[in-house]
Protein 1
Amino acid sequence: MMLSSFFVLMAVAWPAVLACQQHVQRDAASLARRTIVKEPESVILKNVRVFDGIARLPPSTVYLSSGLIVPFLSPHANATVIDGAGQDLTLLPGFFDAHAHPETTADLLSFARNGVTTVMDMACSTRAECLALVREHADDGLPSVFVSGATATVPGSANANLPGFPANETIATGTREEIDSWVQSQLDKGASYIKLIQDRPGQLQLSPEEVQTLVNASASRGLQTNCHVAAYDSVGIAVEAGVSMVHHLPFDKSIDADLAHSAKRAGTISVPTLTMMRAFGAILAPGMYDIALESVRTLREADVPILAGTDANAVNKLGIPIATLPPPISFGPSLHDELANLVEAGLTPLEALRSATVLPSLHFGLTPDRGAVLPGLRADLVLVEGDPTKDISVTRNIRKVWIGGVEVV
Ligand SMILES: *[C@@H]1O[C@H](CO)[C@@H](O)[C@H](O)[C@H]1NC(C)=O
Ligand SMILES: *[C@@H]1O[C@H](CO)[C@@H](O)[C@H](O)[C@H]1NC(C)=O
Ligand SMILES: *[C@@H]1O[C@H](CO)[C@@H](O)[C@H](O)[C@H]1NC(C)=O
């Protein structure tokens, strides 16, 4: 396939955004009807190995009460006791998916059953569909969802032409005033951060100056910026502008040491979404995935923080002919694929686990309440059989999941 048509395909397929429209009404209604079905339990986990977000601890006891991890529970407390003695169990913080496009409650349930307890939505084109899924402090056993609002792009871009993209949500003139009010409108609608697109220099998209203005307008409101990138030069533009995170990786050539060091100096975080890169590679050219793996190796050597994100989507619900799209990426199981892909790219299993727990919590500013196994934090936890700090594949062996102390599996 020619490179130019490839990039058009990229631009059409990636921001899986778009999918939501027809599901919005139904989903909002079903969430409104949802009532709390379970109370957070008091639980004592004994003799379980713990990955606390940073390191592997010897078998310990962990107490859950009122939705939190607590320092202690009286032996007389009416608590469920789970004794891992002789069972080879590991307790971990609930996983983050740092790049996903959930649309429905069913998607959230699928995340929950697979141990994903916090989901960062990375593009939702209208207000209703995003807010319908926001579950920041839910106590009904569904994952927390944070949203970006609309994607920053220009009229007529491949993104703006996607079905369901609201015409009035594009950035038309690129003036400081327009960009400023666009960012404010995303914030007013409940965006936790901003999403923007840099596919390939030369495409119809925000100019490097407009990207810089957008980053400044976001930063002045305390909003992080998340930039979709598809080419080496796009990463350069994003890093130069000081975006908080670059999502995906270049397909044309690997990030080299120079660019990785620039990213490190700029404080840019990488969300490689290797699962999606792999799915595209399988369809278009396997070499693309090798280029992506090489980028991750280089970013890691430059000590750029790497977060686990999948691009989980249901993009085929869009009505775009399936032949032009990658396979939809599952909500939940794909996070375990991503962990394995990160290890394939050279992360140690411990580093891969951090990329889905303490690091996304830190870099999305959620450390005060989640991402580690520590008294005082939310009881968002996963209990697996085996030792994932040695063998990453065992994160799939899920025995139990708690979200806010509510047992979901
Ligand atoms: C103890 O907890 C169980 C399950 O949570 C509940 O069914 C039972 O009524 C509780 N007993 C007491 C004495 O609170
Ligand atoms: C676009 O229109 C929708 C629906 O009227 C409105 O909620 C939204 O705020 C508008 N967006 C902008 C950026 O003005
Ligand atoms: C963005 O902010 C930086 C640092 O405050 C400043 O140097 C730069 O001129 C600003 N650029 C734009 C386009 O607003």
Note: The chain is about 35% helix and 20% strand.
Protein 2
Amino acid sequence: MTDSSHAAEPVAPVYSVPQERKIVTAIPGPRSEELHARRLAVVSDGVSSALPVYIERANGAVLVDVDGNRFLDFGAGIGVTTIGHTETSVVAAAAAQLQDVIHTLFTITPYEEYVRVAELLAEHTPGDWAKKTVLVNSGAEAVENGVKIARKYTGRRGVAVLDHAYHGRTNLTMAMNYKAYPYATGYGPLAGDVTHVPGSYPYRDGLSGVDAAARTIATLEKTVGAADLACLVVEPIQGEGGFMVPAEGFLPTLQAWCTENGVVLIADEIQSGMARSGAYYASELLGLEPDLVLSAKGIAGGLPLAAVTGRAEIMDASQPGGLGGTFGGNPVACAAAVAVFEAIEQNGLLAEAQRIERTLTAGLEQLRERYDVIGDIRGRGAMIAIEFVQPGTRETSKTANADAVAQLISYAASQGVLFLSAGTWGNVLRFLPSLAMSDALIEDALSVLDDGLARLG
Ligand SMILES: *Cc1c(COP(=O)(O)O)cnc(C)c1O
């Protein structure tokens, strides 16, 4: 039954770039090679690019490079353009805001858009209590502020993080990452009072959530002690670590321990938040109601914006002037974020993330039956990963296979599909598409992955 006159009928999106892959040159093509030579002369070697094709346009789920190649984008700028590249309502809201006010600095003369974003965050983050927000520019800055706020509130210094975590590249956050290389090597001295403790990695530790949490808590009590701990920072679903979904009960058990001991539980939902997981925040899927929630990446459709949102009494412990920064909560980024929240609601995007999970996992389970290098398939919503192992080790040592991931990513790129790697050992292929990625495009990408798997040497 169709009723096109019905006002609530979702409007099919109109794309300015054809939603299909098309490769017309070598990858990278000649114009990308030219730009790359210029870049090598002037851009720091400390900044790398996974695939040096230079992008000229992006729309929906597709990137177009300067040589006219079109790529299906399963990275979305690491989960940033969650609602689609150059999404119409985000472009319109940002363009309108550019005409009105670009900058005043909220800590000098405030504006409504900042307040509106804080209202939307209070409404959509987990937990049914009074919440407040501070807006900043990047994920790492949100982590830094979350830790500052927790320290001020508790009067304690200690910060605990989980193994396989990734929290950023600033001085404090590089001490909070699991991997030293490339994030911290040579950049010391690192910030002190950061303790690393085991988390839950069901594929490799085989522990129940409650047992994994007991191990985490025992380590915390032994190595730092609750009395000195300001906060425990967790990614409900770990991002760079490889999309580990903790075993059931892990996060609620940690939360109960934190509450009992006056430790602030901070959920770093910078990658897993903003509809990515099929819920607004992945915490909701895992029984977690954190004291503070960090948002960034997908919050403003591609513009830089990040937030710390949480219990009002914790957020208000900071003295006036202690939080903020020149660009934090920029009006254009805030206007875009309001459009993102509206698009999630109006276009039913939580359901789109759930659709992507169903289509991707069904296709990947079929591939697993045929290729024994596929060890684990995991994730939620439009945040799904495969962990690769060496042939013949799937049921035994589960020996990491980074080579398979590198070969598959390179083959897929040559066919017009952009995949990202992840994982402590580089042996995870992650799918972080925008919610504009159709089932047909997912099937197409899976067929490329199938060909790549058949070619693995
Ligand atoms: C990307 C990311 C960060 C850092 O965000 P930036 O905006 O790059 O500073 C922190 N935590 C998680 C979980 C991330 O995925």
Note: The pocket of pyridoxal-5'-phosphate is lined by residues 138-140, 143, 166-168, 235, 239, 268, 270-271, 296-297 (CB under 6 Å).
Protein 3
Amino acid sequence: MRITALALIILSEFLIGISEAELKVGFYSQVCPSAESVVADIVRNAAKSNPQLPAVLLRLHFHDCFVEGCDGSILIDNGSTSEKTAPPHQGVGGFGVIEDAKAKLENICPGVVSCADIVAMAARDAVALSHGPVYQVQTGRKDGFVSKDKLAERMPDVNDSIQILKQKFIAKGLNDRDLVILSGAHTIGTTACFFMQDRLYNFASGGGPDPSINPGFLPELSTTCPKTGDINARLPMDHGSGDTFDIHILQNIRNGFAVLQSDAALMNDPTTRGIVDSYFGVLSPLTSSFEADFVRSIVRMGRIGVKTGSNGNIRRVCNSFN
Ligand code: HEM
Ligand SMILES: *[C@@H]1O[C@H](CO)[C@@H](O)[C@H](O)[C@H]1NC(C)=O
Ligand SMILES: *[C@@H]1O[C@H](CO)[C@@H](O)[C@H](O)[C@H]1NC(C)=O
């Protein structure tokens, strides 16, 4: 009896071991010691000429991980059915920087560093460049063999209800706290007015704005994104602090200054609202840290559906299968 139980434990640990990612900090430290610094240098240099780049790279990691796992599937160019072209990935970018880093790494240590890991490292560097927390990124992901637009259908959408957003995160093994904290990534970067149209002009059945927008914020939003204006015009998602990675985004969300509808929706549910509020209590400075929690959540996000062993490989270039 005891032996059977022990055997079961060993068997289940073995099964977990092969189904879960074998990621670790410093995966490349022996096999390609300069991997992390090469990526960091390329990201830093590219950000000098494009200040928007850190935000773009952080978003790229999210979109990679939520479809088919963190496996570089979003990087593939394979005609009109590749994942990259799916509507939920609209505006996702940073591909050139990932490709530059890959090219440099293929020169130094060919066939060693995966594109999926480059995306994860670049996101980490992007957060640091934006004055956010400096964290150690786990690596060891392999690149996937699949890239299909249909697989992106279940991406979280800006106009999903809070219930749907929660479900979509749970489906990826992320809880309500991860949803709140990772939405905090909107502390940097911008959105196109395209994503604001429904919130500003078509929210209620008879039209009109989302009533959760602070009346003091509405005129500014509708001036930046007029009803018949340019849907490609952009505005910071963290009003007043869009270049700096900080907790200001959660303060804005609490005060009705959320820009994205999905961020505002965090206040529509007692659990997620409670999590937002927990950063602003009298004792909060002692008990919680947005930065530390963000690190924990993004490391968890970086483990979604990771491919190891023969489920993946190391691409030679990131935008096509070997
Ligand atoms: C909760 C579900 C989420 C929804 C519905 C959502 C939606 C959006 C939308 C609509 C934009 C504007 C895109 C554009 O106009 O180019 C955006 C931008 C962005 N998102 Fe999210 N997002 C979510 C979660 C996340 C997560 C988990 C991360 C990263 C951890 C993230 C990081 C970013 C960043 C950094 C930008 C700015 C991109 C830029 O400046 O180009 N988002 N998001
Ligand atoms: C590439 O696209 C073609 C045409 O749509 C498709 O048949 C094929 O399965 C795709 N390749 C991969 C590996 O996804
Ligand atoms: C939800 O937002 C998308 C843009 O992300 C828009 O294309 C779509 O029409 C919206 N759906 C609804 C039901 O409002």
Note: The pocket of 2-acetamido-2-deoxy-beta-D-glucopyranose (ligand 3) is lined by residues 157-159, 195, 198 (CB under 6 Å).
